[in-house]
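Meet our chain:
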Amino acid sequence: MKLYFYKKLHADAARQEIKAFMERHSTVEQTLDVGGRNSPYKKQFPNRFCIDIQPGPDVDKVASVYELPFPDDSFPAVLCSEVFEHLAEPRKAAAEILRVLKPGGKLILTTRFLYPIHGIPDDFFRYTRFGLADIFKDFKSVDIEPELPGWRSISSLIQGLVWEEKARMSKARYYFLLLVAKIISSLPKTSRNAGERLASGYHVFAVKA
């Protein structure tokens, strides 16, 4: 029972939303995984080719998204999860992703809006749905959905702050704040329109012409 409640308190509401998004867009097609060094979505994208700026056991090639080492129209799908907030030149990265996608190819992307600064010092931006629509405007179609819209996004913010500050707070405060976050995330969902004002992040599904 104790382990059950421990897991429930530590369940990341935002990550659960991201995983559901990945499940909906999973594919067996060859997929370029941009910045997927920790490979959390290997199951959903089994034929992934991972590039990252740092080497790792699941990195196929060390490379920058600003200069992808592939010819035009190379991949039917590109996966880019939790990377764009860490890019100093997001428009340049978007152009490179568009270049290497095959015609009709798909971009599956997630990024942050309401979330603590992390990955210091390489944390540069937080995106609204309107900013993302502009960055990916050269795609034929772009669908952008909010993650934990409205006040539910506060649960993700609390969790992020708690995990960042865990070493500097008492156990009682740590578990109390995780409980508060859990209660907020369990409240009824607000409307989709709430995500235009506040969301923990956004999920993008874009298709190249």
Notes: Confidence is low (pLDDT under 50) at residues 1-6. The domain at 15-149+192-207 is CATH 3.40.50.150 (Rossmann fold). The chain has six helices and seven strands.
